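Researcher: Please translate sequence to structure tokens.
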Amino acid sequence: MGKGTITNKLIEAHLVSGRTLPSSEVSIKIDQTLLQDATGTFVMLELEKLGLDYAKTELSVQYIDHNILQTDHKNNEDQVFLRSACRRYGIHYSGAGNGISHVLHAHHFAIPGKSLLGADSHTCSLGSLGMLAIGSGGLDIAAAMMGEAYYFKMPQILGIELKSSLKKGVNAKDVILELLRRHGVKGALNKVIEYHGPGVASLNVMERFVIASMGAELGATASIFPSDEQTKKFLRYNNRIQDWKELRPDRYVRYDEYDYVDLDTIVPLIAKPSSPGNVVPVSEVVGTPISQAYIGSSANPAYEDFAGAAELLLNNRVAPGVSLDINPSSREILENLMNHGYMSLFINRGGRLHQTGCNGCIGMGQALAPGKNSLRTTPRNFPGRSGVKEDAVWLCSPLTAVASAITGRITDPRTMVSDISKPEIPVDWLVNTTMFEEPLSYQMAQKEMLQKGTNIKSLPDFSAPASSMNLKVILKLNDDVSTDDILPGGNVVLPFRSNINNLANFSFYRLDKYYVKHAKEEAKNGHCIIAGDNYGQGSSREHAAMVLAFLGLKVVVAKSYARIHWQNLISAGVLPLEFRNPDDYDLIKTNNVVDMKAVQWKLLGENFFTISVNGAQIPVFHRLSQRQKNIYLAGGLINYLKKKEKNIRPNKEIYKAYV
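Model: Translation complete:
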């Protein structure tokens, strides 16, 4: 890997096992963990099953930000349960209405030089403060809170040099959209993006946050910025100057790959429906009518993002027929915007104020009529993610969104910004920690009980895989299937995140309404799924793996996988295989039977073998390390951690029956 990089320094400082060689498995100590409520309920149920006594990390925080639209008792039951689990296990708790997890963590807990593992794919946004911040499945977070190291394949380091500074009308969102235009949604798979160069100093921490956050859309393991004077300034405003330390790459640093961005040449960009990688200049689509403009979310969460967009409304108002949705990213940011008149300006000029949280970004409200265009500052625009099957969501900067809300059509913001200045954090910045609850002491925590409502169901037991499997292919998928496709979010599905029995009924329901029925029909033997490239992109939700395992999924054969979902499949006891020849994907049809004999024994040998499909021998391979093989053979990470067996072996007598 690259030499003298910040990434190298942080990994070496936390290294527990392995060598920092390309693609080799390493493990690191985790200092902090981050949970949000859509993933946190499963993590707490996993900790219950694992028998955690008290969190062993330096700091763990549970945020309520996704599941806050309370249409009945279920969401509030989750929140009561999560708060009780925080009290029981020694975890900080941030209640509903306090704000979005990543934003709050940046302001109150992120520390340069520390490692952070989060059960949310956008955890990488905290690399903006010089953290080694990695998104992962909830089981990995549960393991870290148990005191286990975090294991991952050693990434390549993509060094991106930034030069000059952004011009008026251009936002940090345009920088990351430019990188998506260049590299696509798989361009940084198994890579860490490290930003360096003279242009870095021109970006404040929250501008860096925007760029780092959507590194997840590039497929990156993490995104890292230096910790410098801008970082010190940010921490000083948040009364945390004691947490600052300088982090820079060596003078003669060497990266594995290189790219550069001249910030002075960046223009307003927009991602057309329905992929973050479908990027074009705003100037190419000017005049397209819109029905909604949405600002906020974890991808453009800063005070400066809102304030800069609000100034466009000083001498304008929202066009008739357009909904300008204002989604404050934290209670603290909302209060500061109110104190400086920006929120009043939004409301006076026709904006609609929503509660602090993720909201429409994950389909919790703010859906619009089919076929109508919505401009959003959110990180993703996968089909159906907004809550409407035929949605048309475009991703852009707050400046582009509000400029377009004023005209009613997609508008280049550079035509409207000549008289406004770039806002900065005000000198009288108000820090608000009212809605944080600190962990109980160890002694007090032992007296607490988990509070489970009627919708909270304990996790089932998962069994080890059979030595031989005959699996019907009940679903064949194309490229770039997301975890939103596998198990959607939204106000219908999210309330069941703590109830695996009911949650399972929503699996693939946007792509194949018969999947659950067919899976239950094959429950005795289990089933197989065939997929194309980049299977499981998007959210880190481990439910998309664990719920399918609950329904009997045993094996996925794909052309390639997104990083987090690949790991989640293994943790759930599902075997992720890949085609050695991608063209063999065309040979397998729905209802074919995949015959896998002595698979346990094969796993302990080579990483390459063949599977039999309707008599044809198809070569496949896997990327599992020895540790991951043991996890799979144990029936998943929960079983593995409970048993602590390091050398699981197949039943040799069963093996003999098949050779």
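Researcher: Any highlights?
Model: The chain has a mean pLDDT of 92.
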